[in-house]
Write a structure and sequence with these properties.
Layout (H helix, E strand, L loop, with lengths): L1 H10 L2 E7 L2 E7 L3 E3 L2 E7 L3 H8 L2 E8 L2 E12 L2 H10 L14 E15 L5 E4 L1
Antiparallel strand pairs: 1-2, 1-5, 3-4, 4-7, 5-6, 6-7, 7-8
Length: about 130
């Protein structure tokens, strides 16, 4: 998982896919963190993306950089603990203008039952599961 985290972090922007009814929804994200051995993302509870992940927690993440890409498929699980939220906010101090670990909006989710596939043109894909 560390290799996947490092790749996504270095890319800076990744794309998160969710489902709303029968319509896929994709948007850019930039927050990724490891806390207690789990890969986390962050959003606000008031956003549609949060509502979509609660209705259907199956997500995919895709990032591209240096001629390679990673696709991560898994299940998003909300973690309401202050410690998990604070860890994300500490990793991204710029978020602290809009989010607080103890507010009613900050949401962090970890990806479980994940399959990450790192690919490059002409190379065998590398699959990492956690």
């Amino acid at each position: 998982m560390q290799e996947v985290y490092d790749f996504v972090k270095e890319c800076g922007t990744y794309y998160l896919a969710t489902v709303e009814g029968d319509q896929p929804r994709v948007r850019p994200f930039g927050t990724v963190n490891i806390f207690e051995g789990k890969l986390y993302i962050q959003t606000g509870k008031v956003k549609d993306v949060s509502k979509q992940m609660h209705a259907n927690p199956k997500v995919e993440i895709c990032a591209f950089g240096k001629g390679k890409w990673v696709r991560i498929a898994g299940t998003a699980v909300a973690d309401e603990r202050i410690e998990a939220k604070q860890s994300m906010l500490d990793a991204y101090p710029n978020l602290q203008k809009s989010y607080k670990a103890d507010d009613d909006n900050t949401e962090v989710l970890y990806i479980k039952d994940a399959t990450a596939t790192i690919s490059a043109f002409g190379a065998e894909p590398k699959v990492i599961k956690w």
